[in-house]
Structures are given as C-alpha cells and as structure tokens.
Please model this.
Amino acid sequence: MTDSRLSFKEMCARFDVTPRTLRYYEYIELLAPEKDGRARFYTPREVARMTLILRGRRFGFSLEEIRQWLMIYQQKGTQPQLQEWVAMADRQLQALSQQQEALSAAIADLRALRDTAVADLAKLPPQT
Model:
C-alpha cells in the first residue's frame, strides 16, 4: 500500500506555494500536518484544506475568514459550515460586484483620456 501523505516539498510543489507560506498556514492553524521528527507530512485532509484555502484566497477572503469557516466544520459539522459559506459567498459576491463596477468606470475613464490624448497628438505637427 502506498503512502497517501505528501512531504513538505511535495505539498509546496503541488500547490505552487513557498515553504514560508506553508509554514505560515501551519502557524495560524489552517493546516495541521503530521510530524515525524522535523519532517512534516500532509494527509488527504490537509490537501483538501489547502485546496479550500487557496480557493478562498482567490475569491478574496481573508485568512482569518477562511480559518473561522474551517473551524465551523470541526465544531458544528457540515450544515452550519455550508450555511456560513453561503452567507460569506453572498457578502463577497456583493463586494466583488462593487469592485467590478468601480473597475469598469476606471477603464472607461482611462480609455476616454487616452482617446483624447490620441486626438490631441493627431492635431500636432510631426516632430522632426
């Protein structure tokens, strides 16, 4: 039977994270690898948690929000965790929508200013 655990180096490579990041996630109790002396080994549970952590970061959640959400499963189970996930997702979707609107406005403004500069350049005599 093969060992389904990943070494520290394998975990870093699998998720394309630095050793510092992995150690930090352990320090703030997002991950709890098995230890054998100084070696760390990551079980399928830790791999799944890392997947959730990185997905949460991609969606803009703070590490503390992710940590609290992961703790809900340990303390209360699946249903409360899923209920909290829906609430968190709703809040984040609203925040991302506001950011998207602000970004769209900034892009439109920048395009307009660029177009004005292009038109102004066209009116100037060529430099020799």
Summary: The radius of gyration is 23 Å. The beta strands are 6-7, 34-36, 39-42. The chain has a mean pLDDT of 93. The chain is about 70% helix and 5% strand.
